[in-house]
């Protein structure tokens, strides 16, 4: 398991390590004698999945993303081994256009990310608007790195436009500076429609009554109870869990030093109850990627099970052959998943 920390460079480093079979990266060389990985699950963000998919596609190693929606990833010429358990942005662009057409709006503004997610999604949206006799009054982009100058430019475009409906095809972190300025200037009278990248409506003053497209969420029975039952004592070597415990309970784990000055610190015991905390991510509705990650895991599990259970003469490969039960090739796993 590799944590990319949301950094593309770390994502590629993790992908190369998986291909090489060791931490030290040696391109085009595999150091392990054991069978190669059957598949890789990740990334969540499209900007990380795209370079990762290009790299893994060279080896035809199946990659299943549980959160990357950018439409570009549907191109099998560029990404032959990429799969996902979430729909492409092409579909939400169509839904946004249909929603605009349903209400008879013909003059709308578009605010998009300066990224593949925003650019491709908004481009499809503009094409779809024509089907409903609607068009864009303006189309402006927000940079991935905050720019006060760009935010002010977008604000001026919104103020000067006659469009009363604005579509946001942007991630929340890029929209926050803009919405802060919208709220500060009290720019009301605009109706906002947001894509699924917009995580929540925290700006009630300017977004009251607005609409948001959301990918249908599935609940995982028992998952919340599993999370609430986690204890650092169950995995004592997990430093992340120990740090998490200190953060949420405001305590420190006993050491020689903390025992000596224990009156100045609240000590962690590992028996504290997560259920007693008012933490939003413990709400099951916020487990946005849990169900889609679950589906990705089971897609691979079912493929591996079916490959091992394959009977000679009934297989999915040439001449109805089966894969080597003890040495699956990645491309064979991908074919099995697509059946």
TrEMBL record:
- Which keywords annotate this record? Cell membrane, G-protein coupled receptor, Glycoprotein, Membrane, Receptor, Signal, Transducer, Transmembrane, Transmembrane helix
Taxonomic superkingdom? Eukaryota
Checking InterPro entries in the record gives:
ANF_lig-bd_rcpt, GPCR_3, GPCR_3_Ca_sens_rcpt-rel, Peripla_BP_I
Where the record annotates domain Receptor ligand binding region, the positions are 2-337
What's one Pfam family here?
ANF_receptor
SUPFAM superfamilies associated with the record: Periplasmic binding protein-like I
Q: Name one GO cellular component term.
A: plasma membrane
Q: Where in the cell is it found?
A: Cell membrane
Q: Give this protein's Gene Ontology molecular function annotations.
A: G protein-coupled receptor activity
Regarding the membrane, this protein is recorded as: Multi-pass membrane protein
Protein known as? Receptor ligand binding region domain-containing protein
Provenance organism:
Pleurodeles waltl (Iberian ribbed newt)
């Amino acid at each position: 398991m590799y944590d990319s920390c949301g950094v593309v460079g770390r994502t590629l480093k993790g992908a190369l390590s998986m291909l090489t079979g060791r931490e030290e990266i040696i391109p085009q060389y595999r150091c392990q004698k054991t069978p190669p990985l059957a598949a890789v699950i990740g990334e969540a963000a499209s900007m990380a999945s795209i370079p990762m998919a290009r790299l893994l596609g060279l080896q035809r190693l199946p990659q299943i993303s549980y959160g990357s929606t950018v439409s570009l990833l549907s191109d099998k010429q560029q990404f032959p081994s990429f799969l996902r358990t979430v729909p492409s942005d092409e579909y939400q662009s169509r839904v946004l256009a249909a929603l605009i057409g349903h209400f008879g709006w013909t003059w709308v503004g578009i605010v998009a990310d300066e990224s593949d997610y925003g650019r491709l999604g908004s481009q499809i949206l503009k094409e779809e608007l024509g089907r409903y006799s609607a068009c864009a009054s303006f189309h402006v982009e927000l940079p991935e790195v905050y720019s006060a100058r760009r935010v002010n430019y977008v604000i001026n475009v919104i103020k000067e436009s006659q469009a009363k409906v604005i579509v946001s095809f942007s991630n929340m972190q890029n929209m926050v500076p803009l919405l802060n300025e919208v709220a500060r200037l009290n720019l009301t009278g605009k109706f906002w429609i947001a894509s699924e990248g917009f995580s929540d409506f925290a700006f009630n003053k300017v977004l009251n009554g607005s609409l948001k497209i959301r990918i249908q969420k599935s609940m995982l029975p028992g998952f919340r109870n599993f999370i609430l039952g986690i204890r650092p004592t169950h995995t004592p070597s997990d430093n992340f869990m120990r740090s998490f415990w200190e953060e949420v309970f405001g305590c420190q784990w006993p050491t020689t030093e903390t025992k000596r000055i224990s009156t100045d610190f609240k000590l962690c015991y590992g028996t504290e109850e997560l259920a007693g905390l008012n933490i939003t991510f413990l709400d099951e509705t916020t487990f946005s990627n849990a169900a889609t990650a679950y589906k990705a895991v089971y897609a691979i599990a079912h493929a591996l099970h079916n490959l091992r259970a394959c009977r000679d003469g009934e297989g999915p490969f040439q001449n109805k052959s089966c894969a080597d039960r003890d040495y699956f090739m990645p491309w064979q796993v991908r074919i099995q998943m697509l059946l």
